[in-house]
Amino acid sequence: MDRTIRIAAGSIVVGLIVLALKLLAWWVTGSVALLSDGLESTVNVATAIAALIAIHVAARPADAKHPYGHHKAEFFSAVLEGVMIIVAAILIIHEAYKGFLAPQPLEAPLVGLLINGVASALNGFWCWVLVSQGKKLRSPALVADGHHLLSDVISSVGVVLGVLLAVITGWMILDPLLAAIVALNILWSGWQVTRSSLSGLLDEAVSDETLAEIRATIGAHAGGALEAHDIRTRHAGKATFVDFHLVVPGTLSVREAHAICDRIETALAGVIAQAVVTIHVEPEGEAEHRGVFVI
Q: Domain Cation efflux protein cytoplasmic, which positions (predicted)?
């Protein structure tokens, strides 16, 4: 089984364990803030399932109907996660509003907070696994799932502090108040995840640093050519697409020009994981005297 898929499957297991712990903490205490924390964990499980499906689809090879592969499936999952984070925040705001109208005393708060703390620690560890491995494996779905869990960890810390403060002071209104504040933070996190994922669906170019690396690699390995121009890039899941025009001397044979292209493609594959390179060869009369000049 692919490592990315194994990690995505692990997220479902972790999500179910954390959900059970948080619902237990709510059942023990009756805290609306802890209930809100549990509601967010239901979204964690749903998005983990969505991420697993998307990663499985994205791993499929190109076919007749999808000649460029299925890489963008992960971005759809990441957008869904962002939307569901926002839905979780709205549910929390609803519960907080009910708590404002009728604040309730908490039962066995310390036991509930301890249970919630264990769930948060597990979430924090898995968040680190998802983000670090997602970046290493170039999986937008895993990274988005990790950022989602990070928002859950942050909200859980806020919930624990709020419930603890409510117990110490006796101000039960702090319970729903903290739930509402946490919901606003989750809304912001959902927007960030959604915006980042939409950029991939809209064929956003690679970062300036990566583009500079691509240009330098082309210039250093295009010996025999004259220049490269109209360089375009986009990323889709694990794949990075690069296409450009390569100007060569008019006296160069097709075989010689092809050898230069092969050399450039090999070099780019060495610095950009899963690079998909398309090169349009032009005679020197098409030179535009801009772009990348060959070393």
A: 207-284
